[in-house]
Every structure is written in C-alpha cells, then in structure tokens.
C-alpha cells in the first residue's frame, strides 16, 4: 500500500517542471494562428499587391478586410484567451461613453501560457511599428493613393495596442503619468549615482 502511493506521488521538483511545461505549451493554437495570420496577411498583401494585381481598389479592399478581421479577432478573441485581457466601450443611460479596460484577476496555474503571451505581445507591438514605417515610406515615395490604406492599418492596429496596454497597466491609471514617473525615477537614480562617485 505504501509503495503504491509513493509511485503515484510526484517527486520533489516535478511540480515545477509540470507547471513550466503547462505554461510554455500553446493551449489555443487556432487563436494564436489567427492572431498573427490576419496581421501578417494585411502586411504581405500591402507589400506584394503590385505583383498580384494591378487593381488598386481590389488590393485596398483586401487589405481593409484583413485589417478589420484582425481588429475583431484581437479585440474579441485573442486578447481574452491568450493573455486574459479585454477592453470595450460602454454607453450609459445618459448617453455618455465609458471605456472599460479589464484584466483577469485569477492567478491560477491554468490561466495563461508564456508562449501564448509572447505571441500575443510580439504581434501586437511589431505590426503597428511596421504600419508607422509604411506611413512614412508612402509619404516619402509620393504614393499618396496608399496613404489612406496605411493610415487605416496604423489606426486599427494602434487602437488594439493602446487598449491592451491600458488593460495591462490598469485601466484607471494614466499612461502619461506612468511614463513621467518612470523617467523621473531614472533621472533621480542617475543623479544619485553621480553624487556617490568621488
């Protein structure tokens, strides 16, 4: 009886190994795929549309549809399932608009995996940076017909990034105050280092 129970029990340290394996495993592969699929597809269609089609309208509509699918997927599915964050706009009885930013309060073992979190934040941060580059390249190359498309890409991707950063740092806190406090602390630390040096 005692030997049988000892075989079923985990050895010291195996709990951490099992926890690490669960945390690094992708639990929502379909959501992770579509989180990146619509974003990268819109970018690829923008970059390669001259090769695939000579019709500006067809390329523009395809890019805007992909961006819209991406916005909906990230806002309604991948943020909630991959990192436990969500945001939305709510209108009260007086007709006033309120933005709500939420993060999952539970910190159980099965909440989020680190691999899914990395996929989410990498896609969420890199793609708006690419759309910023596209805005400047469109202006400097005088391709003004594409300016509306790249601005639409930037706005939709930036909106999700802003919403999820607000969810992550806390919906009630002001991002500008956080940045000011961070840089203030950095300056104070640098000043303290210089006063300590002989």
UniProtKB/TrEMBL annotation:
UniProt keyword Transmembrane helix, yes or no: yes
Pfam families (UniProt xref): DUF846
Family annotation (InterPro entries): TVP23-like (IPR008564)
GO annotations of cellular component type: Golgi membrane
UniProt GO BP: protein secretion; vesicle-mediated transport
Domain of life: Eukaryota
Major subcellular site: membrane
Keyword field contains Protein transport: no
Assigned keywords, A-Z: Membrane, Transmembrane, Transmembrane helix
Its membrane topology: Multi-pass membrane protein
Locations listed in the record: Membrane
Transmembrane segments: 54-74, 119-140, 146-165
Similarity field: Belongs to the TVP23 family.
Protein name (Swiss-Prot/TrEMBL): Golgi apparatus membrane protein TVP23 homolog
Organism from which the protein derives: Channa argus (Northern snakehead)
């Amino acid at each position: 009886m005692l030997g049988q129970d000892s075989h079923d029990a985990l050895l010291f340290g195996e709990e951490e190994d099992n926890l690490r394996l669960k945390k690094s495993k992708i639990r929502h592969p379909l959501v992770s795929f579509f989180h990146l699929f619509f974003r990268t597809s819109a970018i690829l269609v923008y970059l390669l549309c001259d090769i695939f089609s000579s019709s500006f309208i067809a390329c523009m509509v395809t890019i805007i549809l992909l961006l819209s699918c991406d916005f909906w997927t990230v806002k309604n599915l991948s943020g909630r399932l991959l990192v436990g964050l969500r945001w939305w706009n709510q209108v009260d009885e007086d007709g006033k608009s309120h933005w709500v930013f939420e993060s999952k309060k539970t910190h159980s073992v099965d909440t989020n995996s680190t691999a899914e979190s990395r996929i989410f934040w990498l896609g969420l941060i890199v793609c708006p940076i690419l759309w910023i580059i596209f805005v400047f390249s469109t202006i400097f190359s005088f391709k003004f017909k594409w300016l509306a498309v790249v601005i639409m890409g930037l706005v939709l991707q930036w909106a999700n990034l802003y919403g999820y950063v607000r969810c992550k740092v806390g919906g009630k806190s002001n991002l500008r105050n956080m940045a000011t406090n961070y840089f203030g602390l950095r300056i104070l630390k640098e000043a303290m280092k210089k006063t300590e040096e002989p």
